[in-house]
Design brief:
This protein is an all-alpha fold. The chain has 2 domains: 200 residues, no CATH class; 149 residues, no CATH class. The longest helix is centred in the N-terminal third of the chain and has 29 residues. It is globular, with a radius of gyration of 22 Å. 42% of the residues are buried.
Length: 433
């Protein structure tokens, strides 16, 4: 079927371009709209009255708890637009980050319910992984070996006098080709989840080992401790699905210890230890904050913004980080950071606690659907996809406990991929009813 084949190409292209900062947001929006069109076209391809069939499919989904959670999330986001000091700015974020992504998610979910079991989705992600690594490592190699001109270099950063080790860690935030080191680390959580499940399933073993090792190297090069920790938790959690994962976790732990030792030996620990841990362990958080470091800053930010949310639990600043500095300048000054640095806290600040609750309920329903499908489905590839989805959720939301990256390309990545296992799980439930 033409629509089905076309969709796979669009899905792959969108997955590939998400980590790149080329052409602004327009390509992402256009491809998301094309996914919506092709998915609904594929779902209704066998019907003469496509509009009636689309309505019937949507009506069936509207009775599922996930649709109510998504509707709750959309409504809370829309209401927050009217709380904003700049409603045009917030309405733009609502349309681009919530409405478009959730409609794409629903369209892809319904497509996956009907056709998702026929496609090797992990293979598509793996192909995108190879393209990402080719560009990332190719450009990093030019930075490591080059002497004069460096491609895609932030003009405000000089690396000519840096050692090779420094250049590796500077690369992730000094280059302009990729969409920032924070979003790059989030993108890697999906790639690592796929490579890990391939490995513990003993599929394409050599390729999986190489991809997992290189992805972990790139993750470490971003110096993002939150995603690194969440990936470690995901690797531990993989033993819930496959007993062979315990052996790979032991290998991972050994390599992790070697990597930490290498950092100490090479005296590059400042990229990962950015605060005075002696003061933190002594409970002197204020002193540690004054001396710098992200952990004491986050502690103060979490406490300060949580207190502010509890003062006005149901009225936020409106969608968008820009509104926080307008509405809460004194709170920002006290906190030390200009936004929540936690996805749920940030959403509570912007929309009220009802927005954070809506997102949490949506996540829990998705996780429950995937877990139920993993237990009940006997198809090995489907079970693997469900495991990938759950591990990706653990890694993605684990990283978002330390930063609020559920926005821009990272939010599109989540809705794009998670629609696939969620749609297959939804179809499994409907077949068993």
């Amino acid at each position: 079927m033409h629509a089905e084949r076309l969709f796979k190409y669009i899905f792959f292209i969108l997955l590939v371009i998400i980590p790149f900062d080329i052409g602004g947001t327009t390509p992402r929006y256009v491809l998301s709209i094309l996914i919506i069109i092709t998915c609904f076209s594929a779902v209704t391809s066998s019907c003469t009255n496509k509009f009636s069939e689309a309505c019937a499919v949507l009506q069936g989904f509207s009775r599922h708890p996930l649709s109510w959670a998504l509707g709750f999330l959309l409504i809370t986001a829309l209401i927050s637009v009217f709380m904003s000091p700049d409603w045009r700015y917030s309405f733009g974020i609502f349309c681009n980050e919530y409405l478009l992504n959730i409609i794409m998610f629903i369209a892809l979910l319904l497509f996956s319910e009907k056709y998702g079991r026929k496609t090797d989705w992990a293979r598509i992600v793996t192909a995108a992984n190879v393209i990402f690594l080719t560009f990332y490592l190719g450009l990093m190699s030019q930075w490591l070996l080059g002497q004069d001109e460096f491609w895609f270099l932030d003009t405000g950063i000089s690396i000519e006098s840096e050692s090779i080790g420094d250049r590796i860690f500077v690369f992730s935030y000094a280059n302009t080709l990729f969409h920032g080191f924070v979003h790059t680390s989030i993108y890697l959580t999906l790639l690592i989840a796929v490579a890990l499940i391939y490995l513990v399933k003993h599929q394409h073993k050599i390729r999986s080992i190489i991809l997992l090792a290189v992805n972990m190297f790139v993750m470490i090069s971003t110096t993002r401790r939150g995603p690194i920790l969440s990936v470690s938790i995901g690797i531990i959690a993989s033993s819930l699905f496959y007993s062979s994962a315990k052996r790979y976790f032991a290998i991972f732990f050994l390599l992790f210890c070697i990597a930490v030792s290498a950092l100490f030996i090479s005296d590059k620990t400042e990229y990962f230890i950015r605060e005075d841990w002696k003061l933190l362990l002594q409970g002197e958080v204020r002193k540690a904050k004054d001396m710098g470091g992200s952990i004491p800053l986050r502690i103060y930010t979490y406490i300060t913004f949580t207190k502010e949310v509890l003062k006005h639990p149901f009225t936020g600043t409106g969608l968008g980080k820009r509104n926080i500095s307008r509405v809460m300048p004194d709170v920002i000054k006290e906190a030390g950071l200009i936004h929540g640095h936690n996805a749920f806290l940030e959403l509570a600040i912007e929309t009220g606690i009802q927005g954070a609750l809506a997102l949490l309920v949506t996540i829990l329903i998705q996780a429950r659907m995937l877990w139920s499908c993993w237990k009940s489905d006997n198809h090995l590839e489907i079970k693997g996809l469900m495991a990938i989805g759950i591990l990706f959720m653990i890694m993605f939301w684990g990283a978002n406990m330390f930063d609020d990256v559920f926005r821009q390309g990272s939010s599109t990545l989540y809705w794009l991929f998670m629609a696939v296992p969620t749609g297959i799980a939804y179809g499994s439930v409907r077949r068993n009813v």
